[in-house]
Protein: 1,4-alpha-glucan branching enzyme GlgB
Amino acid sequence: MTDVTPLIDASTAQTIAQGRHGDPFAVLGLHEVDGALVLRAMRPEADGVEVIDAKTERTLVTLDPVGDGLFAGVIPRRKKRFPYLLRMTRGADVWDEQDAYAFGPKLGDLDEYLLGEGTHNQLWDALGAHVCTHEGTEGTHFAVWAPNALRVSVVGDFNGWDGRRHVMRRRGATGVHEIFLPGLGDGTVYKYELIDGAGNVLPLKADPVGFGAELPPATASVVRDLRGYDWADAGWLQQRGAKQTFDQPISIYEVHLESWRRVPEEGNRSLTYLEHASMLVDYARDMGFTHIELTPVSEYPFGGSWGYQPVGLFAPTSRFGTPQEFRAFVDACHAAGLGLIIDWVPGHFPSDAHGLGRFDGSPLYEHADPKEGFHPDWNTLVYNYGRTEVQNFLIANAKFWFEEYHIDGLRVDAVASMLYRDYSRKEGEWVPNSQGGRENLEAIAFLQRMNELVYAADDSILTAAEESTAFPGVSAPTSTGGLGFGFKWNMGWMNDTLRYMAEDPINRKYHHDKMTFGLHYAFSENFILPISHDEVVHGKGSMLGKMPGDDWQRFANLRAYYGFMWGHPGKKLLFMGCEFAQAQEWNNETSLDWHLLDHPPHQGMQRLVRDLNTLYRATPALYRKDSSEDGFRWIDGGNAADSVFSWMRYGTEGDAPVLVVANFTPVPRTNYRIGVPHKGHWAERLNSDAALYGGTDTGNAQGAEAQDISMHGCAWSIEITVPPLATVFFQLATD
Structure:
């Protein structure tokens, strides 16, 4: 063995061997030392290491072991850097590898500037694991933000999960660490090993900007090559903006992919993305919906969270396939004329050891104070929206789904919990804002900025807020102080109307205002009427189970309610299974009860929802002025004694107006006179009591002719039969 003193000093050798050196790229690889070219390699898996000229394949030198897996040697007759390989031996095994420490940094000055400033809107292009060609070599570039870590390493099967082997390069003041690992590609399993500021080795962390993940319960990230997908939806993207505005029909089918349909013959497994691309897409299109909305698909460790406790915000869950297969699902939606909305969760994140919590040993993504950084409702952590880098991380993630996966909308979960610092907290358990109030000013600014940036990038997309309070201007422009969302879920309407429907019909006259109150504020926001998964879990029962009465009345009540909903101003959202009156409460671990469609009442409900969607999409008066007061007029909103409601819906000039009449008692109303604002023939377009839906077939098949008899403030009126527990749509016939 040669004298190793000039090759590396003892203290440096020790810190490299321990994986605790602050700048390993200054030590490992090729370096000039006193006029000689010295190569050092940390290869604890090898007994011996040789340096091979990559061009000539000649052995140049055998490196000397200098302790604890570290090897070093002088390259003879070489003064300049050159391409080389390391040939390792261990017993009888011999293998060649390129040296990660032979490669320079990949992140550029602009990346470093934007990362340091916290304004990198294409954050995923810089951070994460990217399969690429770097300095002429194929491999994967890794980059992660961990400003308070003393050391960050990439670990995986490729290096025996040994954090000493691939310690990353720290990029100055940005707090970003990066390394290019030659030879690694799509499918590589990896995590980050970090040492915190106190010198403690932390639990292994998944990549915050990882594009793939292992199948739970495994928790590692997986390198996924996002290059090269051949999108076929250019035509859809060009015209989707015209389909997602306030004056267009939007009817959303909300789906939890894991439980929509399963394969009992194969261990009751869920469908894959590719199977959903055929079966789910075909079904939603056949049912007349305009959009599919998915509960969160960002990788999540606990299936019982339904995705609402995500760890991998940039990774479509591996439960159903690869990122490219998820893209194929999106493509299939667009080919079928369906928009795709995904639920997005910037409101909280789980404290799983491999996740974002205390990522580099410090409260990096969350607040240090649990009064700000811990969510009591879900036992999760809360993002520090006031930290520029965290805001950048979240906004870039929103843009990522639009740009990389061509999704059409984001529904933002639990917005109310973000807007208020005292949300679900008792006195003394929350920290007031800088002005002494309860509003979370940082979260408000974040939501405004997110909406500004995603709409600025592409104004054909939509965002929707699940927001349950009276916070003003959720769907108003940020220029007027609003949050800038395209739409807001109307939680008040949902709660009021479901409470009304739960009443026995004999008592409904005492609760009449629950059905009319929503019209006092119906045009204050751009509303979506949501019957979501939250209404059919946790002991709330199914939609059918909420309805009072015997079997016939329960089905009739639900049909009448859906008619009321489709006739009411606001876009529509219905959770899977509700369209065919699933009898049992939703269970995320089993398939929907598709066998119920063997029974006529469930067939009838499904047919009604399909026909409601068809009528809705074909009738501009039912959607054109959803957000405008002049698109709605009560005919008789005060008939509490009969529990009958009637109103008009209007579109723009030339659109035939629609009269909606809903009866929420089991008593048919014959010779029922009702005012109409126009003379002419009023055709019955849909009757939820029709026999094909399971009803009594009471109605007005021939329509009704307006008579010159004034009523309800109208110059004309019609005499009709109002079926029991039913909603009926009439439209003015035009020549």
